[in-house]
Amino acid sequence: MQCTLSGTLYIYQGEEIAMANLPKDWPIEEYKDVMSQQFWFEELELRKKKQGTDKPDMSDVWDGLQRKARDHARNPAPHWDDSENAGFSLKPNSEKPWMRVHDDYKEWNVAKQQEDPHSVLSFWKAMLAFRKKHLSCTYGIYTPYSENDERVFAYTKEYKNERLVVVMNFTKEDVKYNLPEDAGSLDQVTDQIGNIPDGKVTINGRVFELRPYEAVSLIYSD
């Protein structure tokens, strides 16, 4: 979706390897953001007085921090490899990053994803190349085709004689989506890309048969 819509494409640090938020079992002390710390401890004191206990229920506050705290985007990124501190120290134990490195860095890092053709990093590279190759991604006229569908996001983009069709299943279920006739013919596909490694795109007539979370982009000329 990001790579086929107009405007400036912005990839935040760590997004290219799909870095995760900080683990839920990390204590508040691991959060370095002053606003997060202040919010947590101010709310803690208020609830202590209101609930008359030293250990009030803070689960809702913690859930909010797990979703919105700025430190999720400040964790050392990206993880370069599985060495000490995810490769941020030139010499083992010589320097520590400003924050604790995410616990999953040994399995989730750039070095491993560079060697895997089906990794998130490899897919980002392929999508960026697709976007640069096909100007309809950037400059195409956008026409939505799924405004009332809560499962599928579909649209076309037209630029000069090139047409881009994008169909994405945002559910964990198999979905069939019938592309409207005014989206144009699909019998002259010249290029395509999808997010499932087998590269298969199932289209019966104008019906896309999408697997869970499958996304497909097709290029064809009128």
Question: What does this 3D model show about the protein?
Answer:
This protein is an alpha+beta fold and 222 residues long. The protein has 2 domains: 15-115, no CATH class; 135-221, Golgi alpha-mannosidase II (Immunoglobulin-like, Sandwich), CATH 2.60.40. It has helices spanning 34-51, 59-68, 110-114, 120-133, 136-139, and strands spanning 141-144, 152-159, 162-169, 175-178, 189-194, 202-204, 207-210, 215-221. Strands 1-2-3-8-5 form a 5-stranded antiparallel beta sheet. It has a 3-stranded antiparallel beta sheet with strand order 4-7-6, with no helix packed on it. A hairpin with a 2-residue loop joins strand 6 and strand 7. The longest helix is centred in the first third of the chain and has 18 residues, at 34-51. It is globular, with a radius of gyration of 22 Å. The two termini are 23 Å apart. The mean pLDDT is 91.
Features:
222 residues; alpha+beta; Immunoglobulin-like; 2 domains; five-stranded antiparallel sheet; three-stranded antiparallel sheet; 5 helices; globular
Q: Quick gist of this model?
A:
The protein is of the alpha+beta class.
Question: Topology, please?
Answer:
Elements (H helix, E strand, L loop, with lengths): L33 H18 L7 H10 L41 H5 L5 H14 L2 H4 L1 E4 L7 E8 L2 E8 L5 E4 L10 E6 L7 E3 L2 E4 L4 E7 L1
Antiparallel strand pairs: 1-2, 2-3, 3-8, 4-7, 5-8, 6-7
Classify the oligomer: single chain
Number of helices: 5
Fraction of residues in helix = 10-25%
Major beta-sheet overview: 5 strands, antiparallel
Low-confidence stretches: none
- As a percent range, the share of strand residues is 15-25%
Distance between the termini: 23 Å
Shape: globular
Number of strands: 8
Please indicate the count of domains.
Answer: 2
The helix-strand sequence is: HHHHHEEEEEEEE
Which strand order spans the largest sheet, edge to edge or round the barrel? 1-2-3-8-5
Query: Using only CA atoms, what is the Rg?
Result: 22 Å
- The mean pLDDT is 91
Structural class: alpha+beta
